[in-house]
Amino acid sequence: MNDPLMIAGKAYASRLLVGTGKYKDFAQTRAAVDASGAQIITVAIRRTNIGQEPGQPSLLDVLPPSQYTILPNTAGCYTADDAVRTLRLARELLDGHPLVKLEVLGDKHTLFPDMPETLKAAEILVKDGFKVMVYCADDPIQAKRLEDLGCVAVMPLASLIGSGMGILNPWNLGLIIENAKVPVLVDAGVGTASDAAIAMELGCDGVLMNTAIAGARDPVLMASAMNKAVQAGREAFLAGRMPRRLYCATPSSPTGGMIA
């Protein structure tokens, strides 16, 4: 791992994080995760069984914590109290696992984050010993407040959850990245591989996605494409793109020594 993603003091080779919802079955879920190369797998505790329903199939039988970092999330929570309660349950189910993804939604139509409730929940969870990665609006001020509260990563949306609209406001993302001292990961709105590459080229530390893979015609093939896109975007960011030159063309080959 020459260029690891560092979250809460742990290094990860992959900068792609994937969700586990919306697949046709657990077998397809596992195949897509394998193709993505992801090491951090997010799980909606209110929608997926990881032991809270004894006797029912558990996602952990397919994606065991010995092989993946399970990132429980609070999808479906609309208040800080619900989110905190959900993550405390997840910690019990995962034997004290502290790394979690917080999301507190504002309404069922847009799934846009409720930032006052998100800030409230984040403060409670950090004080309770959780390592909080947090879904938030692409607002540089709110993102900085979450960092100041002690969140280990901020995860601004690129566009609405499940919309596939891509990155609608790269300038705000750039401001968040410039000011952050914790990892910044795009969460929500990615639709295809080029969206993931653009997020990484902007300087994001990683990308989290679910619908873009699970909703594709061939989820496993799309997972592979996303894997490559995140790697390519990161390499392009590290390489440093050429400057944009408006109304100024330059030849791609040397002009010195040309035959007269």
Distance between the termini: 51 Å
On the 0 to 100 scale, the average pLDDT is: 92
User: What is the count of helical runs?
Assistant: 8
Using only C-alpha atoms, the radius of gyration works out to 20 Å
Number of strands: 10
Shape: globular
Strand order, main sheet: write it out: 5-4-3-10-9
Structural class computed from helices and strand pairing: alpha/beta
**Main β-sheet description:** 5 strands, parallel
Q: In what range is the share of β-strand residues? A: 15-25%
Q: How do the SSEs run, as a string of H and E? A: EEEHEEHEHEHEHEHEHH
Ranges where pLDDT stays below 50 over 5 or more residues in a row are: none
Share in helix: 25-40%
SSE layout and pairings?
Blueprint: E1 5-7, E2 10-12, E3 16-19, H1 26-36, E4 40-44, E5 69-73, H2 80-93, E6 99-102, H3 115-127, E7 131-136, H4 140-149, E8 153-156, H5 170-179, E9 185-187, H6 193-202, E10 206-209, H7 211-214, H8 219-239
Parallel strand pairs: 3-4, 3-10, 4-5, 6-7, 7-8, 9-10
Antiparallel strand pairs: 1-2
Helix pairs in contact: 1-8, 2-3, 3-4, 4-5, 6-8
Short summary:
This protein has 260 residues and is α/β, with parallel strands linked by helices.
Structural summary, described in words:
With 260 residues, the protein is α/β, with parallel strands linked by helices. The protein is built from eight helices and ten strands. It has helices spanning 26-36, 80-93, 115-127, 140-149, 170-179, 193-202, 211-214, 219-239, and strands at 5-7, 10-12, 16-19, 40-44, 69-73, 99-102, 131-136, 153-156, 185-187, 206-209. The strands form three sheets. It has a five-stranded parallel β-sheet with strand order 5-4-3-10-9. Strands 6-7-8 form a three-stranded parallel β-sheet, with helices on one face. It has a two-stranded antiparallel sheet with strand order 1-2. Helix 2 (80-93) runs parallel beside helix 3 (115-127) and helix 4 (140-149) runs parallel beside helix 5. It is globular.
